[in-house]
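Posting for a labmate who doesn't have an account.
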Amino acid sequence: MKSMLAQYRGKLIFSSLVILLPMLAFLFQAQEALFYPLLLLATHWLCLTLVFRDKKNRDQSPKALGLVVWLMPVLSLFISAVFLLIKQGGELGVAMFLVNFPMGLIFLLIGNYLPKVRQNSTLGIRVRWTLQENWNATHRVGGKVWVICGLLCMACSLFGESPVSILLACLVILSAAIIPCLYSYLYYRRQIKEGSTGKLSPIR
């Protein structure tokens, strides 16, 4: 873990500063929200600690690790922008665009890198069947699903605050979470049926 912290030290410092950057705006326009960047910073470091402690991530794709480092800073900027917009009486449709479009972009980026994530205990689609049997197959399909969901989510941002847009965005998020896991299970069941694998051993 110490070696990885040293390797990413510059990015960790800069990403932490980016997360805290909205505090400057909150100090003058929304003092009640000053603790939000601090909460995101704590979440940021918790996630990074879990990822860097996993020895399997020492040989992980640098692009995948870079995505983990910059995910929370990007979220911090967009969440803060939406909060300030609503605080100043901005249109809800614009706020929804600032939520759905970046979220779709994040899905798109994650989907692009999912197939490149090497098997580990902290990153990727971590269900029982992927951890023991079909990691690569699940992440190839999961990457495609997340890219499609990202594009759909970005399309939802064009419809503003309409109930249909909100419903579709929720369905997209659920699909991104459920479809890869369901595929992994069905793939495992097919392997059992074909006799190419045995039943999973208990996870310890």
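Reply:
Got it, the structure tokens are right above this. The chain has a mean pLDDT of 84.
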